[in-house]
Input
Amino acid sequence: MCPISRQTLLAGGVLLYALLHGTQSTLHEMVDAIATFDNASDTTGTNVCIFSTANSSLPMLSPLLLPTLMSKYPTTFVDMKNYVNVDTASLASLVLLDLTAYHYEFPFQCIQKCLNIHPCYRKSAKFVILMGGTSFQRKATAIRYVEKYSIMNYILVPLTNTSGPFPVYTKHQFTGQEYYFRSSDRPVQQFFPDKLRNLNGFRFMMHGVTVYPYMLFLESEGQATGMVPNLVKHVIRDRCNGTTYFMEESKYRRVMHGLFNIPIERFHYQHIIYFREETGVFVVCPIRTV
Ligand SMILES: *[C@@H]1O[C@H](CO)[C@@H](O)[C@H](O)[C@H]1NC(C)=O
Ligand SMILES: *[C@@H]1O[C@H](CO)[C@@H](O)[C@H](O)[C@H]1NC(C)=O
Ligand SMILES: *[C@@H]1O[C@H](CO)[C@@H](O)[C@H](O)[C@H]1NC(C)=O
Ligand SMILES: *[C@@H]1O[C@H](CO)[C@@H](O)[C@H](O)[C@H]1NC(C)=O
Output
């Protein structure tokens, strides 16, 4: 009915450019700052792992983001078709989880597949989870999944179609505290608070068998003495404000957080600690969590 004037088109084009460009520059800058922080704080340097899916809006929202990361740091790129050989891949210190293809939901099946099959990240890796559309409204699902995989250093980044800074969110799983930032906040270190410093009473459970002088079950239920329990109590109780529980009974082995002297293969790794005592020569802990 009413023909669109050249001015309107032009104005629309400029607005669209501003919107896209605004998001692009802040997202790009934020991730770049996180990578710089990561590279500076990690002695082995940043290794990036990028999980992406079909129909991602990332190339449109931030065309320079992936090329910049890939040009600066060793990068592994993973999608549903390309599989990483975890034995040969360097373990990533920074993981970019691109869920921008999903506008209304947190794609837990996709995440489950990615994280079960590609545990190519270190325990300490920083996760940047980009969420599309209104999917951030279902952040409880996202949180449930990162906790399921024991991912602690994560931020959820809802990428709306507005210009300017966007929210950055994380949650302390032990205290329940929620943190909201803006993508333009600096320094980016504050996005990744040390959540292990306060386990807030979290009960660290460890299974073991009696091996003198490493572990001895002589006391009441939940208690143990010896070198290994002393070390665990020092770290968990004194350093991290958690509590400890030790048990000898083997049927609960699979739900334990730590195991003494009995390694069990798990499909994906969680916060598991093996202390090995074979010849009295070595104690290994933790496996693949540096
Ligand atoms: C990463 O850190 C190393 C060692 O500190 C440094 O040589 C390198 O230039 C850094 N890379 C980037 C892209 O900042
Ligand atoms: C991507 O878009 C195509 C075409 O719209 C659709 O058939 C396909 O299911 C989408 N894939 C994902 C993973 O959303
Ligand atoms: C942002 O996206 C929503 C839903 O996709 C749409 O309703 C809204 O008009 C968009 N806003 C702008 C400024 O483009
Ligand atoms: C340590 O954990 C307890 C819960 O067991 C909590 O009440 C307390 O506030 C925590 N201490 C600190 C310093 O956060």
In short: Residues 148 and 270 are 9 Å apart (CA to CA). Residues 161 surround 2-acetamido-2-deoxy-beta-D-glucopyranose (ligand 3) (CB under 6 Å).
